[in-house]
Amino acid sequence: MSKDTVADMGLNRTGIKTSPIDSKDIVQEAQRAPPSSPGDAQGIHRVRQQYAREADGLGHVPPPSSLKGVAKTAAGLLKGQKSTVFIDKLGERLAFERTGVRLYEGALSKLEVYGSWEGGPSRELLTKILDDELSHFALMTETLQGLGADPTAMTPSADLSAVISQGVPAAIADARTNLRQCMEALLVAELTDNASWELLIDLARGLGHDTLADRFQLALDAEAEHLSLVKGWLAAGVATEARAPLESASVPAP
């Protein structure tokens, strides 16, 4: 079966109906057998609570790396602002945009192997999005440095975001996925990216960083375009597969 399409009928042993005789025996044995360990869902709940109480969290925002950063932090505290929250979220966006570059590098590799489809992504547009992600990474680096923070440090929110989204780069790097499947992974990333930029802009304005918020808005405008493109490419890819289930849906990469 060609990997260009994903919904073709073929050998699949994951369903229980693949072997009705054996599956009947398995169900009967499962019903007869006692639980493999004592306890129930409440036991799991209590263990999770215990671990949560003992854990130290995902880390901390590092102290300012310059005198300018110390001064800005002190000034923020005098105004009743916890500037570390802003630094934390800036670090999150920096890490996410850096990963975004890698995601679109992966998508370009898939394009070279599988080609695109009518209404699908082109090398030119994928490269443009990659360049946008790289420029947003540079914006976050510049912003953090301007606030006296260390852009190479992983903040708690950056750590959390990496854990939450780790399936996206894994899906794109997987040799078994094609370009259309990568669009589904990119859709998850772009939805998160857009919502996170919106949150960062609101936070920046709330803290009085209007000039930064205006620059962040330009980044959000570009991300909104990325989301629209990925959604359109994915919709066209699914429709193409549905119309031509017995033939390859790919065409040479433009």
UniProtKB/TrEMBL annotation:
InterPro entries noted in UniProt: Ferritin-like (IPR012347), Ferritin-like_SF (IPR009078), Ferritin_DPS_dom (IPR008331)
Region (Disordered): 1-43
Biological source species: Corallococcus terminator
Protein name: Ferritin-like domain-containing protein
SUPFAM superfamilies linked: Ferritin-like
Recorded superkingdom: Bacteria
Any single Pfam family the record assigns to this protein: Ferritin
Signal peptide: none
Membrane-spanning intervals of the chain: none
Residue ranges of domain Ferritin/DPS in the record: 117-234
MF term (GO), any: ferric iron binding
